[in-house]
């Protein structure tokens, strides 16, 4: 165990994302809060010359930012001719390669023990591809770098109205909608459910979580009239999981249109978030089924966290916003939430380490 961990200091790498986007701006805006800065030791990871340019330009216009000189830094070496190709608001091969290599470095340093977790600013998948890096997103690179084939995208947001926390895991992520039915399977669902349960127990201290599982079809198939997946395998699979986890509450398959009614009520604070009235987590079967309600309720507060990794990773739930890059108007609420959650999860894991060692 490191001296830093013994002292209780959380060490976080913060990647700056695509330098042509709003990543540097929202990172420096979030870290301008002295209370947030005091919660952890932050190291900025990216091409620091471009970060300094962003800081100088925005600071001149009166935007409140943290000075990058006040943080530890890991610089990504970039040929000046390549760096000069980075243009605010335009994702290209140069900006994509810088953001890709920044995350690579953060992963390597975290695996080596320098950091407890990684906070990632937004990247552009298209820019990664232009640079020759063919990954669906940061999640897959993180999993590959950590040597994990069991991982998932869990979206978390805390309501400012009620304090209730929404947790939504996606069974499938960045694939075309037409591929979803063929991709879903009992084996895939078992991996995702196991990951979700492990995360809720490890990172949120929920020993017996209540989980809602969505149906695939309208009305969850309506007894096979609107689709057969629920009858053919999803309902039998869920019955088997209840036998595997008799101490847990596993509800479903819940019709997708009604699944989100109670979370909406809990978020709005229309009823007290009692444990027996709402679920601790929701397992959605595909991207938009889970993320439309998450973004409707919590667009500026949701956090994407990768579960199944040996370290904590969180990220704001928005993109590079090339259309407003460099204007000083980017909202940093989601980045602040990502940092706060990253600190919280690192502390929770650290608190459990002695118990795990004894076990």
Salient structural properties:
alpha/beta; disordered C terminus; 359 residues; eleven-stranded mixed beta sheet; globular; disordered N terminus; Isopropylmalate Dehydrogenase; single chain; 43% helix
Structural write-up:
45% of the residues are buried. The chain has 15 helices and eleven strands. The two termini are 17 Å apart. An eleven-stranded mixed beta sheet has the order 3-2-1-4-11-10-5-6-9-7-8, sandwiched between helices. It folds into two domains: 160 residues, Isopropylmalate Dehydrogenase (3-Layer(aba) Sandwich), CATH 3.40.718.10; 160 residues, Isopropylmalate Dehydrogenase, CATH 3.40.718.10. It is globular. Helices cover 43% and strands 16% of the residues. It has 359 residues and is of the alpha/beta class.
Topology:
Layout: H1 3-6, E1 11-15, H2 23-30, H3 34-37, E2 41-46, H4 48-60, E3 72-75, H5 80-83, H6 93-111, E4 117-120, H7 125-130, H8 138-146, E5 152-158, E6 165-170, H9 180-183, H10 186-204, E7 210-214, H11 229-244, E8 249-254, H12 256-259, H13 261-268, E9 281-284, H14 287-298, E10 303-307, E11 312-316, H15 333-358
Parallel strand pairs: 1-2, 1-4, 2-3, 4-11, 6-9, 7-8, 7-9
Antiparallel strand pairs: 5-6, 5-10, 10-11
Helix pairs in contact: 6-8
Overall helicity: 40-55%
Total helix count?
Answer: 15
Overall 3D geometry? Answer: globular
Would you list the SSEs in sequence order as H and E?
Answer: HEHHEHEHHEHHEEHHEHEHHEHEEH
Write a compact overview of the structure shown.
This protein has 359 residues and is an alpha/beta fold. It has 15 helices and 11 strands. The protein has 2 domains: 1-148 and 310-321, 3-Layer(aba) Sandwich (Isopropylmalate Dehydrogenase); 149-308, Isopropylmalate Dehydrogenase (3-Layer(aba) Sandwich), CATH 3.40.718.
């Amino acid at each position: 165990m490191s001296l830093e961990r013994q002292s209780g200091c959380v060490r976080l790498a913060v990647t700056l994302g695509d330098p042509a986007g709003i990543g540097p701006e929202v990172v420096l805006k979030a870290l301008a809060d002295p209370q947030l800065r005091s919660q952890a030791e932050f190291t900025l990871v990216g091409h620091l010359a471009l970060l300094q340019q962003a800081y100088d330009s925005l600071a001149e216009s009166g935007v409140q930012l943290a000075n990058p000189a006040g943080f530890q830094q890991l610089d990504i070496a970039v040929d000046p001719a390549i760096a000069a190709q980075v243009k605010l608001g335009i994702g290209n091969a140069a900006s994509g390669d810088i953001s890709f290599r920044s995350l690579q470095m953060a992963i390597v340093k975290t695996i080596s023990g320098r950091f407890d977790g990684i906070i990632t600013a937004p990247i552009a998948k298209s820019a990664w591809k232009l640079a020759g890096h063919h990954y669906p997103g940061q999640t897959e690179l993180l999993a590959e770098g950590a040597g994990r084939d069991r991982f998932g995208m869990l979206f978390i947001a805390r309501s400012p109205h009620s304090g209730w926390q929404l947790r939504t895991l996606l069974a499938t992520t960045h694939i075309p909608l037409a591929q979803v039915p063929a991709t879903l399977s009992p084996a895939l669902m078992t991996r995702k459910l196991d990951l979700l349960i492990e995360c809720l127990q490890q990172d949120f201290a929920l020993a017996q979580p209540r989980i809602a599982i969505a149906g695939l079809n309208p009305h969850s198939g309506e007894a096979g009239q609107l689709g057969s997946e629920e009858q053919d395998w999803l309902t039998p699979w869920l019955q088997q999981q209840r036998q595997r986890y008799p101490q847990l509450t596993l509800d479903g398959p819940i019709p997708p249109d009604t699944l989100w009614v109670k979370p909406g009520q809990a978020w709005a604070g229309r009823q007290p978030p009692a444990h027996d009235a709402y679920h601790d987590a929701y397992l959605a079967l595909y991207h938009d089924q889970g993320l439309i309600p998450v973004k409707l309720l919590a667009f500026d507060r949701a956090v994407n966290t990768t579960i199944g990794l040996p370290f904590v990773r969180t990220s704001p739930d928005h993109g590079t916003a090339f259309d407003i890059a460099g204007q000083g108007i980017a909202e940093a609420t989601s980045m602040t939430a990502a940092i706060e959650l990253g600190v919280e999860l690192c502390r929770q894991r650290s608190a459990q380490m002695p118990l795990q060692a004894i076990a």
